Amino acid sequence: EGTKGCVRFHKGTAALARGREETPYLAAIFYQITALYTTTRFPLNRTFNENKLILVAFRCCPWSRCCGMGDFRPRTVWLGHPEKREQRYPRNVINNQKYNFFTFLPGVLFNQFKYFFNLYFLLLACSQFVNELRLGALYTYWVPLGFVLIITIVREAVEEIRCFLRDKEVNSQIYSKLSTRGELLFSLEDYAANQRVPADMIFLRTSERNGSCFLRTDQLDGETDWKLRLPVACTQRLPTAADLLQIRSYVYAEEPNIDIHNFIGTFTREDGDPPVNESLSIENTLWASTVIASGTVIGVVIYTGKELRSVMNTSNPRHKIGLFDLEVNCLTKILFGALVVVSLVMVALQHFAGRWYLQIFRFLLLFSNIVPISLRVNLDMGKMVFSWMIKKDSKIPGTVVRASTIPEQLGRISYLLTDKTGTLTQNEMVFRRLHLGTVAYGMDSMDEVQSHVFSAYTQVNKHNSSRAPATTKVRKTISSRVHEAVKAIALVHNVTPVYEANGVTDQAEAEQHYEDTCRVYQASSPDEVSLVQWTESVGLTLVGRDQSSMQLRTPSGQILNFTILQIFPFTYESKRMGIIVRDESTGEITFYMKGADVVMSGIVQYNDWLEEECGNMAREGLRVLVVAKKSLTEEQYQDFEARYVQAKLSVHDRSLKVATVIESLEMEMELLCLTGVEDQLQADVRPTLEILRNAGIKVWMLTGDKLETATCTAKNAHLVTRNQDIHVFRPVTTRSEAHLELNAFRRKHDCALVISGDSLEVCLKFYEYEFMELACQCPAVVCCRCAPTQKAQIVRLLQERTGKLTCAVGDGGNDVSMIQEADCGVGVEGKEGKQASLAADFSVTQFKHLGRLLMVHGRNSYKRSAALSQFVIHRSLCISTMQAVFSSVFYFASVPLYQGFLIIGYSTIYTMFPVFSLVLDKDVKSEVAMLYPELYKDLLKGRPLSFKTFLIWVLISIYQGNIIMYGALLLFESEFVHIVAISFTSLILTELLMVALTIQTWHWLMIVAELLSLACYIASLVFLHEFIDVYFIATLSFIWKVTVITLVSCLPLYILKYLRRRFSPPSYSKLTS
């Protein structure tokens, strides 16, 4: 549900809350968490107590808000020495509620009445307590207002209760506690699994044999792949967990910040000889909201509450108000202006006689129906129905509506901004190409690679050396190059093989014998898994890995052992990763590195083919990595290690110092090969993009991938059609370069634009208006190398410069900012987790569902909302026109025409159901809407709800109100009560007939609503003898008078509708047959 788990430490029982554990200081408390089990990775026959998380936690300050913790500071946390506490820390509890028990009602009422129109209706209702302003019974004003408020309060209460229950579930999680004597005070074996890490910790110890553990971070960074975490070496070597409190040690941690990918700290043990000082980095952390996937881990808590990384990275998304709501608000302002004008005219026609200012207020009350109080309720209920229809659509299963207030926005999207990886593509990597410079191997020639690897380890060609020395020499050269490339790819990664039981072999046996059928690869990137799987397919298999070693199996079954000396993980800034290993058989030390061509081109030795071949492979839609190596002597490595360890111990500018030391190795490396991995397209991406293009929606692709790959994917997905030119915006760094390139682009017509993030930043800095003007004219735009903040910036600029609605689609954590910034955010539940899906307004399981979501549900929601709003306004204007005519005829008296239950029943039980049934109306079938997406294009101009349609409905209301009122005045005979009976009955029948006139496709519920409303009115006449003469309505005179008035008010409109359909039919009517 997106509640990023800041878990309150629950003590469990009152007995445990006594004694020395209950202390306001930094008490060393151990907690135990059942680890997450995944059936695809671990056997189900393990007991829960074999897989648990134990953490050392310090006591939180219960009065954190009063302790002055506004400033974040570094901290030193001592193990087992609470008396050395330096500061208090926030409580580890989450609260996602907007209100509490005492502020709920005042808060909801304030949020309702801070808007002018709700306050206006409240003032109208309150004015009825003043005798000079009272027009009728109090309930005629208070009941409608109360109905609106009750619906709002109930809706808010349901949301608050759901939020409270989610928070309570997380905050009440109980963790087994370990005392300072090392005794487990109570067990958690029977408690629920799938518990997350409750606080930010430093990883001290694990029970896993390989000395590491796996972490799932899907709810923190959006990535579903497991992350490898390493304990502090000093504490990992301790005999038992209880020894953690016997040593004299402390952790120094940097001040809390939002960076989840980096951490700076140190671990110091003072009682050692000599004292031990170890550097801490991101690999030693366990952030809150992550899940321990295997093993038992022990950690010390360093951040809690609002200082958690997950909490600090949670931004409050902006409250999205739909364009339709703004348009309706504009219309209601016009109606309010009309209300004031009519009231002033009535008083002016009285020549401002007497207490005219009181008369103005009475007329404002009398004509208050001009601004319909039921409009907001009807629209909100309609949106709930539209959201329910989206969820229940069997053709887009799994779709979730998280923002039920903006479904009609989906019907007016002009710009669709989409991520590439995982959204348009499957994020399933397939190895396609190995390039060695002089020779390249594709999918059809992988058997040659396999034979080269086999020959490199078995040397089967020795007996051929005497017959064909030249050929053998060439073959050996190629074989050795292929072998070196494959070995490098098999070593330079962060992949770990995990063994599972398969029903025949248990886990321990599978791990011991490296069973192929039980092995699963885990890594933080699907690219790395695809590369390791490829090396396995050609004969060199990764069979084992732990914190300090790696094992490869050759085609002959021999096990090659490598010692891992150093690992330099991939970061978005460095765009490369490296590893230093020692071959146990030869003692050789080798530094392997792989990365993007933009950074590796300056690291490897000079060559004349790298840039060209990288471009060629990228144009084929492949993700390219450059692999290189460098041999090190023992002296070189020892010198590097000393400088590297010293840099890692730095507290200030650690990242810069470490990078400088690593860069001293990254020089003149030997280029081994290029690898090309393909990210396959999602199902039905091409037809979906074609539907969107035909609907008049311009699609922009915003990706962090390189320019060539993004361009190829755009072509492959038909984002750029075959007959369209592509203008690749050249890299620019200065204002003059941007000016020249924009002039060159201006001369192009009807061509797609491809631009990198760096060039985009320069253009937006100096020529924002000119660039956006040119880009908006393009049929498609591809922005590559885009940072998450740039994606959100582009969305914001599109909204500001065009005034059109935008929709952002993404699947990863890096798309959240773009999704939250767009008018409609759509999250795709993909391989990168659910972070984008949870942050989005709408969640889909596949990109292809977007077509139906927009073309069918978006279109219907907008057209239905437009019809519903205009009909509610018509209903109110009609009765207000009758009141105006009545007052005019009777010397501008401020006397209500209808009183009591008549005025309430008119907008509720008599007309509510037929009017609301318009939410079921549709002009064409869903299949037709998908087949002819051009129908969607008509909605982009906002014609269903415009000033033109609004004026038409106003004229219809004035016409019908005049006909009904003047007809009743002309045809009544003797008593005033007959005017009420004739006019009110004609009014009800007119509204029912107008609903029938508006409906385009009948639904059985519409017929039920019409008949039910008519039956309710007829049945209620028996109880309305106070307002209507029951004996008169049973006469033939009443029936023919009502019939004539109703026909005169409705028949001309039916005739006009027929003539319009006959001679100027709308576009959709041509397809209905």
Could you characterize the architecture of this molecule?
Helix content is 42%, strand content 17%. Strand 32 (824-828), helix 25 (835-839) and strand 33 form a beta-alpha-beta unit. With 1073 residues, it is an alpha+beta fold. The strands form 6 sheets. A 9-stranded mixed beta sheet has the order 14-33-32-31-15-27-30-29-28, sandwiched between helices. Residues 838-1065 form the P-type ATPase C-terminal domain. The chain crosses the membrane at residues 326-350, 356-379, 872-892, 898-920, 950-970, 976-997, 1004-1024, 1030-1056. Residues 81-141 form the P-type ATPase N-terminal domain. It is an enzyme of class 7 (translocase).
What's this model, at a glance?
It catalyses: ATP + H2O + phospholipidSide 1 = ADP + phosphate + phospholipidSide 2. With 1073 residues, the chain is α+β, with helices and mostly antiparallel strands.
Shape by Cα distribution: elongated
Sheet with most strands: 9 strands, mixed
Roughly what percent helix? 40-55%
Residue runs with pLDDT of under 50 for 5 or more positions: 1-69, 181-194, 460-476
- Give the percentage of residues in beta strands: 15-25%
- SS-based class: alpha+beta
What's the alpha carbon Rg, rounded to whole Å? 36 Å
Q: In angstroms, what separates the terminal alpha carbons?
A: 45 Å
Strand segment count: 33
Helix count, DSSP H or I runs of 4 or more residues: 35
Cofactor: Mg(2+)
Protein name: Phospholipid-transporting ATPase
Family: Belongs to the cation transport ATPase (P-type) (TC 3.A.3) family. Type IV subfamily.
Organism: Pygocentrus nattereri
